[in-house]
Specification:
Layout: H1 8-11, H2 54-65, H3 70-76, E1 78-79, H4 87-93, E2 97-100, H5 114-128, E3 141-144, H6 162-168, H7 171-186, E4 192-193, H8 217-232, E5 248-252, E6 266-267, H9 271-278, H10 280-287, E7 292-295, E8 299-300, E9 303-304, H11 309-319, E10 325-327, H12 345-350, E11 355-356, H13 362-375, H14 380-396, H15 420-433, E12 435-439, E13 451-455, H16 462-466, H17 489-499, E14 503-506, E15 522-528, H18 550-559, E16 565-570, H19 578-582, E17 586-591, H20 598-604, E18 675-679, E19 681-682, E20 687-692, E21 695-698, E22 703-705, E23 709-714, E24 722-727, E25 731-736, E26 752-759, E27 766-771, E28 777-781, E29 793-798, H21 799-804, E30 814-820, E31 824-834
Parallel strand pairs: 1-11, 2-3, 3-4, 5-7, 6-8, 7-10, 13-14, 13-15, 15-16, 16-17
Antiparallel strand pairs: 8-9, 12-17, 18-19, 18-31, 20-21, 20-25, 22-23, 23-24, 24-31, 25-30, 26-29, 26-31, 27-28, 27-30
Length: about 850
């Protein structure tokens, strides 16, 4: 689930993910899915979970459902977001649930206290059971993304992200983590969590790889059962107690197996592979009693899961027997063909039970859904089934009997948030998740009485070590002061070393040339990926710091002076780091450890008597790539650099006796295929936005008319293969995506932005731009690259011209935009990025 992106206009663009190069190792199965219930294969199993209060619950649901109007029923399947719905809205409509997205807080206050969270929960609850306007009293539910602890709340315990937990191979500790998270969630008055993520990530280019426990479905299945048990407790009796929460297994189904690792992309696996690899988390999580399933943004064989009756109804509900409810993801229904965020009968008819509808779309969606039920577009029987499922869960878990949020046992208890017992569990998880890839000459563990220098931008940066989904959606914009009670990796090292009489110095720049007397005994360098979430983390290949080897330079600066180097790598996925491995004497993967950074020092240092305190025991739950373009998984016949399950212990002999190859199969001048932006039509993920005084207008049909800009499709060679732009004043037309694209493959000296244009007037008042978010981007005069001709011509703009003016091709939100400052008109066609062009590559 996600929060809104840069703007509402851009947020509306969320579509199938990026178009990346397909490697020879990727799945190319094209077997089409079946479409009828009778064709559901027998390998889909029946769910074994049974609630003991089933008959009592069904009778109560029958009685309540019989009294409800269409309007009251539709309200139960609407889930607005706290920034876009008021307490009075809740009183008026009686929504069945509501949510806070990532980086969303009560009163829009990042530093909202537990009491602030409880106050909002109490107000919403009381409004939901106030029947003075909507005529019915049904308690609402608040859902939140607590994906590695209660990560939206300042001061909460932040556990390692799932990829690190997978390296532990410890289901019992997973249960303890889930139980601790549930208590901290309960302390803020919330009763429902959008976790666990049970994706089986198969392509490390995917920006959500760190939300996956493993590429191995067996680990995912074990952990799904363990975490659901910890979050919900034993609900076979039919109730969730005051220390547990309703869980959600997500995202159903196949999000970890999209082509090229594209977030929200297309999974083309066969149905049997879909089950064997991508369904195991659901089999085990639902057997543990998880009461809700979140539908996935991705498609299966080109059909959006939110609109797949076969998967949501025929497979999940009918064949598997799931009797809880299916909730959508952030306006995911609006991505179904023929739907918008404001109207989508296709989703509920396919089997979606709850629309997650943030932004202002909730009101028109509510009104349209009511009308569609009354007109028969949505059968009343389907609405009744959806509402029955919501009410069933509410009654099954005892929501009608629970006290209001302010009167629950843990609500508002500040001592629960970041409790020491929870931090101890997190610290244990950090210790067990570390994976050692290299340890030359048995450098680790270190004696704590050394003179230690600690360097790297991850050393004293709790936000970086915690990753995405940390206070804010992307995990960015945070300071160490936003993490009261947490410990950075440097602070953990400093404490261990100081206690033993050694010294630890934090180095915030490149090291000086040390004299022999000044030289430290060892350098610990903490570096790695910066935080990201969802599609913002998609990359085109897994080379670490491609095009900017600043961390390698730091490692080499110590190595050149003969100082032993211990690398601590912060990452949400396996990456190609051969040069960094070669520059290190020891290399430890810390993943995204969360708030308890001292867990690293616990392992890499001995005690003061020179004895190992904790073993180095983590094992890779993902194969480590041998090249930047390798897509490798356990059992696929390929040879990774480090196999699934690899991880050195302190007593193991390090097999890396020779330097690793630093050459690879990536053409540094770019890839061989062009990247289409507008070729016959808009190419995914790019969509057209017109910007002028009227605001931002998304092109949803073949014509857009703004105040100063109009745009329509027109014919050049075939029907509607070009765009005709007419400016009556200042404005722009551009191609945008809500998530940044990694287009570094087009950063070579001969790479260029190429398009065809037919000018009706001079190009003197036109400019062409690329954008990489915020103030990042570059704008160039179009006149530098065109002739004065009014005939069709091909324009070649070297991408280096944009890069010279500050454009970063690693995070591209808009690869092409045309702006005018006064009246003009032109037609454009065949817009693309070319990896290699010939001819004049000048910028002026």
């Amino acid at each position: 689930m996600k929060k809104r992106t840069l703007s509402l206009a851009v947020a509306a663009l969320i579509t199938v993910g990026c178009q990346k190069t397909t490697t020879q190792n990727e799945v190319t199965t094209t077997t089409m899915p079946p479409v009828a219930d009778s064709q559901v294969p027998d390998f889909w199993p029946q769910i074994t979970f049974k609630a003991h209060n089933r008959e009592e619950v069904e009778a109560r649901v029958d009685a309540l459902l019989a009294t409800m109007t269409v309007e009251q029923k539709v309200a139960q399947i609407m889930q607005p977001e706290i920034r876009d719905v008021t307490v009075e809205d809740m009183r008026t409509y009686g929504f069945g649930s509501y949510l806070n997205g990532g980086g969303s807080f009560p009163n829009l206050d990042k530093h909202a206290t537990p009491e602030d969270w409880v106050a909002l929960a109490e107000a919403m609850h009381e409004a939901s059971i106030d029947d003075s306007i909507d005529g019915i009293a049904i308690p609402t539910m608040w859902g939140t993304d607590a994906v590695h602890g209660h990560n939206n709340v300042i001061g909460a315990t932040l556990f390692p992200h799932n990829i690190g937990l997978g390296a532990m191979r410890d289901p019992s500790l997973i249960t303890a983590i889930a139980a601790a998270t549930a208590k901290e969630v309960r302390a803020t008055g919330i009763d429902w969590v959008f976790a666990p993520t049970v994706a089986t990530a198969r392509d490390d280019r995917w920006g959500r790889t760190y939300e996956s426990y493993s590429e191995d479905p067996e680990v995912v299945g074990q952990y799904a059962h363990a975490i659901v048990t910890g979050m919900q407790g034993d609900i076979s009796s039919g109730y969730i107690d005051d220390s547990h929460v309703i869980s959600t297994v997500k995202h159903f189904i196949g999000d970890g197996g999209t082509q090229s690792g594209d977030d929200q992309g297309d999974n083309i696996a066969s149905e049997e592979e879909l089950f064997n690899i991508h369904a195991q988390g659901y089999v085990h999580g639902l057997n543990a009693g998880s009461q809700s399933v979140m539908a996935s943004f991705n498609s299966w064989h080109g059909k959006k899961i939110h609109g797949s009756k076969y998967l949501l109804t025929n497979v999940l509900k009918e064949k598997m027997g799931f009797d809880g409810f299916v909730v959508g993801d952030w306006n995911g229904h609006g991505q179904i063909e023929g739907c918008t965020n404001e109207s989508c009968p296709q989703a509920i008819n396919a089997g979606l039970d709850v629309y997650m509808v943030p932004t202002g779309a909730w009101k028109p969606l509510y009104e349209n859904t009511v009308a569609q039920v009354k007109s028969g577009v949505i059968p009343l029987s389907r609405l009744d089934d959806a509402v029955r499922r919501v009410l069933r869960v509410k009654m099954r878990v005892g929501l009608f009997e629970q006290p209001s949020p302010a009167n629950r046992a843990l609500s508002g208890d500040q001592s629960v948030i970041g409790a020491q017992a929870h931090r101890d569990i997190a610290r244990e998880a950090v210790r067990k998740s570390l994976v050692m890839l290299k340890n030359q000459n048995s450098l680790l563990p270190l004696s704590p009485d050394m003179n230690v220098v600690v360097a790297g931008d991850g050393a004293h940066n709790i936000g970086k070590q915690s990753g995405g989904w940390t206070i804010t959606w992307q995990g960015t914009g945070n300071e160490n002061s936003d993490f009261p009670g947490a410990t950075s990796i440097f602070q953990g090292i400093e404490s261990a070393v100081n206690a033993a009489g050694g010294s630890a110095t934090l180095l915030e720049s490149m090291p000086a040339n040390y004299t022999d007397n000044e030289k430290p005994d060892v350098a610990i360098v903490v570096f790695g990926e910066n935080p990201y979430a969802e599609g913002n983390g998609d990359i085109s290949n897994v080379e670490y710091q491609r095009g900017d080897k600043s961390d390698l330079a730091l490692l080499n600066s110590f190595k050149a002076q003969g100082i032993p180097v211990v690398s601590v790598f912060i990452t949400g996925r396996p990456l190609w780091v051969n040069p960094e491995l070669n520059a290190s004497d020891a290399f430890v993967v810390a993943w995204l450890p969360g708030s308890e950074g001292q867990g690293i020092a616990d392992v890499i240092f001995t005690n003061q008597q020179g004895e190992v305190q904790y073993p180095m025991q983590g094992k890779l739950s993902f194969s480590w790539p041998a090249s930047p373009t390798q897509v490798v998984n356990k059992g696929d016949g390929q040879t990774p650099l480090f196999a699934y399950g690899y991880g050195l212990g302190f007593d193991d002999i390090d097999p890396l006796n020779e330097p690793l190859s630093e050459s690879h199969d990536v053409d540094q001048q770019g890839q061989s295929e062009p990247h289409g932006i507008y070729v016959l039509t808009s190419q995914k993920p790019w969509q057209v936005i017109v910007k002028d005084d009227a605001g931002d207008t998304l092109m949803l049909s073949n014509t857009v008319s703004g105040d100063q800009v109009s745009l329509r499709t027109t014919d050049r060679n075939v029907q509607e293969d070009s765009l005709q732009l007419t400016f009556s004043g200042a404005g722009s037309v551009g191609f945008y995506s809500p998530f940044p694209e990694d287009l570094r493959d087009f950063a070579g000296e001969s790479a260029a932005l190429v398009f065809d244009v037919k000018l009706d007037t001079s190009a003197d008042n036109l400019s062409v731009a690329m954008n990489c978010g915020g103030d990042c981007g570059a704008t160039l005069p179009l006149s530098n690259f065109v002739d004065a001709s009014t005939e069709w011509q091909t324009v070649v703009v070297p991408t280096s011209c944009f890069a010279d003016k500050g454009m970063s091709l690693s995070e591209v939100y808009s690869p092409f935009a045309l702006s005018a400052i006064k009246s003009t008109s032109l037609t454009i066609s065949n817009i693309r990025l070319e990896p290699s062009t010939t001819g004049d590559m000048a910028c002026n």
